[in-house]
């Protein structure tokens, strides 16, 4: 015991000496934003104390391994979101929760018939506490086998069961252990967060030249916030980042692309077709990779076959879920009729899609609007833009694609995904013939942020070529120090959004 105590003391002295400035900055940010969000209201002392301790621990645990450090920050700060975010308060969480309960009761498929959409009355009990903070009375409620028809489940027909597995396991574990609905509910959220953190860890570990941008985007407050709920975005974006790590390696790494890498990549793209359909277009990058970048000619043809396979999976999935009509979908929203309208009004359809691509830029502020778009902070959004913009533009790393064809392919894929997002929302959630696309949210574009440095990084303009090489060499030597400041600032932004949530729901 004394040996462990001595080791801990020695470790703490070393890390504190390295990071005391970051801890002081954390204290200042914590104090200023607490005063700003709570003003003269009474504060939840215990929750604030826990928030401060988890934030300090996040910075102290930053080490030489960027992937591992990011994993622990997501777990620690995400755990705070798991419990302080009010019941079913993230976007569409009530629908995602109903699907997780539906899956936990053995339903892997989907139906649009009300009598086949029955789940435990536990769902209704939790739904009755919607928007209540963690001081709710769900601890008094136990699981029941009685069921209700809940047609809201069919709103999740566009997603496969895959992205609900962690939440369903957490909820089922609560039932198995016979614990109350309070802990069962939060256990489902926590499992979703853990799976997201694991997928993010492997994405950062696997990517070769984009580790810092990848780590920063996986720690985006909105992404961690969603992963710490029942929202299927946790698993979906974890898979997107994992697929992105292979995508980036294909266009930046010096090694030849092997068939097994293509196999894993198309598998991920195939799964994404059922979880985040627009992101299946990531597979399109394989068309824009020169035959000489593959290990051999056979691998090149395997890659072309993989693209065709991904496209077939996407079309089959789209056909599958359009056969369902959500029980509570308005009659004026019909994918088949909308598609007919677009075919007969091609100029209008093109204008709509083009406008959607341009409007995607304006969705940035939504990344810092939480709840059911009920609260947010444009000030934090602006500060984060300065942080991530400065990092992506000025960071002196070799993060360019290997050739112009790869760069062109990346641009085409990004525009294609934005187009697909707008098209899917127009077909599925927009009234037939409406002159605008409804339902598009800023969070749908999160996966694309990782690729931005390819186009916006301008370190060559600010450093002479010799100095740039020196800067890159220095960065590699001081990766530890680099990890500390990059991840510490990312932690500050997570902290500010946690404090914003507390200020909105926990004032005395």
Weakly predicted, low-confidence segments: none
Most strands sheet: 2 strands, antiparallel
Q: Could you state the order of secondary-structure elements as H and E?
A: HHHHEHEHHHHHHHHHEEHHHHHH
Quaternary assembly: single chain
How does the SSE layout of this entry go?
Elements: H1 2-38, H2 45-60, H3 66-84, H4 93-104, E1 118-120, H5 122-127, E2 147-149, H6 165-176, H7 181-206, H8 211-218, H9 221-227, H10 233-252, H11 259-275, H12 297-322, H13 335-344, H14 346-359, E3 369-370, E4 375-376, H15 378-394, H16 404-429, H17 453-456, H18 459-462, H19 465-477, H20 479-505
Antiparallel strand pairs: 1-2, 3-4
Helix pairs in contact: 1-2, 1-20, 2-3, 2-20, 3-7, 3-8, 3-20, 4-6, 6-7, 7-8, 7-10, 9-10, 10-11, 11-12, 13-16, 14-16
Entry summary:
The protein is mainly alpha-helical. It has helices spanning 2-38, 45-60, 66-84, 93-104, 122-127, 165-176, 181-206, 211-218, 221-227, 233-252, 259-275, 297-322, 335-344, 346-359, 378-394, 404-429, 453-456, 459-462, 465-477, 479-505, and strands at 118-120, 147-149, 369-370, 375-376.
């Amino acid at each position: 015991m004394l040996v462990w105590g001595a080791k801990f003391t020695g470790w703490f002295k070393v890390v504190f000496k390295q990071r005391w400035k970051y801890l002081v900055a954390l204290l200042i940010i914590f104090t200023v934003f607490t005063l700003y969000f709570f003003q003269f209201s009474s504060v939840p002392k215990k929750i604030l104390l826990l928030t401060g301790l988890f934030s300090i621990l996040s910075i102290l645990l930053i080490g030489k391994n960027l992937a591992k450090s990011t994993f622990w920050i997501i777990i620690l700060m995400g755990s705070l979101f798991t419990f302080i975010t009010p019941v079913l308060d993230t976007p569409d969480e009530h629908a995602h929760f109903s699907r997780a309960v539906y899956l936990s009761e053995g339903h892997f498929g989907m139906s649009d018939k009300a009598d086949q959409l029955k789940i435990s009355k536990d769902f209704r009990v939790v739904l009755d506490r919607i928007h209540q903070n963690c001081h709710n009375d769900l601890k008094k409620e136990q699981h029941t086998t009685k069921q209700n028809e809940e047609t809201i489940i069919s709103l999740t027909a566009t997603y496969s069961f895959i992205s609900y597995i962690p939440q369903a396991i957490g909820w089922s574990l609560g039932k198995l252990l016979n614990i109350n609905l309070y802990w069962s509910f939060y256990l489902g959220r926590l499992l979703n967060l853990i799976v997201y953190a694991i997928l993010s860890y492997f994405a950062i570990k696997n990517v070769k030249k984009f580790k810092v941008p990848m780590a920063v985007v996986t720690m985006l407050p909105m992404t961690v916030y969603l992963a710490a709920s029942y929202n299927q975005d946790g698993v979906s974006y974890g898979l997107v980042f994992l697929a992105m790590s292979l995508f980036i390696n294909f266009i930046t790494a010096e090694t030849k692309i092997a068939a097994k890498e293509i196999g894993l990549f198309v598998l991920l793209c195939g799964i994404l077709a059922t979880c985040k359909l627009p992101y299946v277009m990531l597979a399109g990058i394989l068309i824009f990779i020169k035959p000489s970048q593959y290990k051999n000619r056979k691998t090149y043809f395997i890659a072309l076959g993989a693209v065709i396979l991904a496209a077939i999976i996407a079309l089959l999935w789209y056909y599958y879920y359009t056969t369902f009509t959500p029980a509570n979908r308005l009659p004026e929203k019909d994918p088949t009729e909308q598609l007919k309208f677009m075919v007969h009004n091609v100029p209008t359809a093109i204008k709509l899609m083009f406008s959607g691509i341009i409007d995607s830029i304006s969705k940035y502020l939504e990344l810092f609007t939480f709840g059911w778009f009920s609260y947010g902070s444009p000030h934090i959004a602006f500060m984060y833009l300065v942080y991530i913009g400065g990092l992506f533009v000025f960071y002196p790393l070799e993060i360019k694609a290997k050739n112009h064809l790869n760069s062109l392919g990346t641009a085409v894929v990004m525009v294609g995904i934005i187009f697909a997002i707008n098209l899917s929302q127009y077909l599925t959630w927009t009234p037939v013939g409406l002159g605008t696309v409804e339902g598009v949210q800023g969070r749908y574009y999160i996966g694309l942020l990782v690729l931005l440095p390819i186009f916006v990084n301008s370190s060559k303009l600010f450093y002479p070529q010799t100095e740039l090489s020196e800067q890159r060499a220095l960065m590699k030597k001081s990766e530890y120090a680099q990890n500390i400041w990059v991840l510490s600032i990312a932690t500050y932004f997570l902290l500010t959004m946690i404090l914003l949530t507390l200020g909105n729901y926990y004032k005395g």
